[in-house]
UniProtKB/TrEMBL annotation:
Pfam families: Recombinase, Resolvase, Zn_ribbon_recom. It comes from Streptococcus dysgalactiae. Keywords: Coiled coil, DNA integration, DNA recombination, DNA-binding. Gene3D superfamilies: Putative Large Serine Recombinase, Chain B, Domain 2, Resolvase, N-terminal catalytic domain. The keyword Coiled coil applies. This is Recombinase family protein. Residues 3-151 form the Resolvase/invertase-type recombinase catalytic domain. The lineage of its organism: Bacteria, Bacillati, Bacillota, Bacilli, Lactobacillales. InterPro entries: DNA_bind_recomb_sf, DNA_bind_recombinase_dom, Recombinase_CS, Resolv_N, Resolvase-like_N_sf, SSR_resolvase, Zn_ribbon_recom_dom. One of its GO terms (molecular function) is DNA strand exchange activity. Residues 374-422 form a coiled coil. Residues 160-265 form the Recombinase domain. The active site is at S11 (o-(5'-phospho-dna)-serine intermediate).
């Protein structure tokens, strides 16, 4: 038995006068179902809603019921009753109906996705939709490149420090007060200050970036931004700008040479040419097991061969009061010790290797997911669907105004979306999917034999946090979050 969902829509009274009234559409579509000996599951009616988008009460209900596979076919009078947007039409037919094994039929155009011709038409629609998307992207890209070549700023929503944006002229205007700070940053850096000391100097002297403190990355971006010599950077290319420069080209070039020089020195000292980027396996993951504050890398004493050991210690072991830095745990002193970096990393790798070898242990990690009341949530969604349907009927019968319909519909939709999200994110349903994803990242190749960068990538994809105490470690896995003590 073919269960059919009938969808009808009018956007204006003018359409009703032209033969597209709700009742006329329903009459023709139900008659067609009788001829075909099909069962009408439900009639979804949107009166007074544009076909320009799919944000309509009955359409929302249709999509929800389609995802729950409550019918076999969707029937409309004309294709534009479903949507006037080719993108939305393709989305509904392919992503909503097709993926749930639901056929789509338009009576007027004899468009039936259950037939070879209908399937071919979907392919044609898809090709033209993709072509339209690519043409729009190309036009936008050419427009932006043209704008950059003409010297106009590409930073309209986020203007570089030292400038304001003149919307009428489409140009950057020098902010004289901020420009003084920019020049000061370049002068101090070339004068020998490190970025850390420069940050501390600016913040301690009340020289802020608007209402925010300076930080390491923000200063580095200032020093490497060609906008300050009157240039525009877009998609890796540099173009002459129309705006006034703040820094001389000679000063800017010297600054770039100094940045490279200091990176080389950093490489020789700590084997890290870019100290502002996470280099180590547990960077951002390692936390103090006593106070929860992040652990940081410190260098041990020099060995006879000139090398240094690396250790983790809690940031709050020696609290800092410098303005502009992130404060953890109210900056309370932590009496924890330090931990050898190599020992912690080897331990984490060993635990991951254990999961590779012990499928029972891995399965056990996923067997204790919380259970939610699926049946109860589905009943609540059905109740909301019925309320949305009654609201639409009240509007069609002129018993409520359009503003009231939209206001109440919006509220009910929010409730429904929250419930649907809860079902979609149901740990019990997602368990197999999560487990397979975890296994895919885990892989079958012995992690202990892989190079450091590959190990780091695997760890960052599997591990959320690593809490470290003396003789005690907790690993919080991404499955979602689950702590395992060792």
């Amino acid at each position: 038995m073919n269960k059919v969902a009938i969808y009808v829509r009018v956007s204006t009274t003018m359409q009703a006068e032209e033969g597209y009234s709700i009742d006329e559409q329903i009459d023709k579509l139900t008659s067609y179902c009788k001829i075909k000996d099909w069962t009408v599951y439900d009639i979804y009616k949107d009166g007074g809603f544009s076909g320009g988008n799919i944000e309509r009460p009955a359409m929302e209900r249709l999509i929800s019921d389609a995802k729950r596979k409550r019918f076999d076919t969707v029937l409309v009078y004309k294709l534009d009753r479903l949507s006037r947007s080719q993108k939305d039409t393709l989305y509904l037919i392919e992503e909503i109906f097709g993926k749930n094994d639901i056929s789509f039929l338009s009576l007027n155009e004899s468009f039936d996705t259950s037939t070879p011709f209908g399937k071919a038409m979907i392919g044609i629609l898809s090709v033209f939709a993709q072509l339209e998307r690519e043409q729009i992207k190309e036009r936008m890209l050419l427009g932006k490149i043209g704008r950059a070549k003409s010297g106009k700023s590409m930073m309209v929503s986020k203007v570089s420090f030292g400038y304001t944006y003149d919307k009428l002229k489409g140009e950057l205007i020098v902010n004289q007060a901020e420009a003084l700070v920019v020049r000061k940053i370049f002068d101090e850096y070339l004068g020998g200050r490190s970025l850390i000391k420069l940050r501390d100097y600016l913040n301690s002297n009340g020289i802020y970036r608007g209402d925010k403190y300076w930080n390491y990355r923000g200063l580095l971006l200032i020093l490497s931004n060609p906008v300050y010599i009157g240039m525009i950077r877009y998609r890796g290319e540099i173009y002459p700008g129309n705006h006034q420069p703040i820094i001389d080209t000679e000063v800017f070039n010297k600054t770039q040479e100094e940045i490279k020089k200091r990176q080389i020195e950093a490489l020789e000292f700590s084997n890290n040419p870019r100290p502002f980027r996470a280099k180590y396996m547990l960077s951002g993951l390692a936390k103090c097991g006593y106070c929860g504050t992040p652990l940081k890398i410190i260098l041990g004493y020099k060995r006879k061969d000139g090398s240094r050991s690396m250790r983790y210690q809690c940031i709050n072991r020696f609290p800092r009061n410098t303005k502009g830095i992130t404060i953890y745990n109210d900056n309370k002193k932590c009496d924890s010790g330090f931990y050898e970096k190599a020992d912690i990393e080897e331990f984490v790798i060993a635990q991951i290797r254990g999961l590779q070898l012990n499928s029972y242990k891995l399965d056990n990690m996923f067997d204790k997911q919380p259970i939610i009341d699926v049946e109860g949530i589905e009943k609540q969604i059905t109740s909301l669907d019925n309320k949305l349907k009654r609201l639409n009927d009240l509007y069609l019968n002129d018993m409520i105004e359009l503003d009231d319909l939209k206001k109440q519909t919006q509220s009910l939709r929010k409730q429904k979306t929250m419930l649907e999200d809860e079902l979609i994110n149901n740990p019990a349903i997602m368990q197999d999917k999560n487990k397979n994803h975890f296994k895919e990242i885990l892989g079958t190749k012995d992690i202990t034999t892989l190079d450091y960068e590959t190990q780091k990538s695997i760890v960052n994809n599997l591990v959320n946090k690593v809490f470290v105490k003396a003789g005690h470690i907790k690993i919080e896995w991404k499955i979602p979050f689950k702590k395992c003590e060792f």
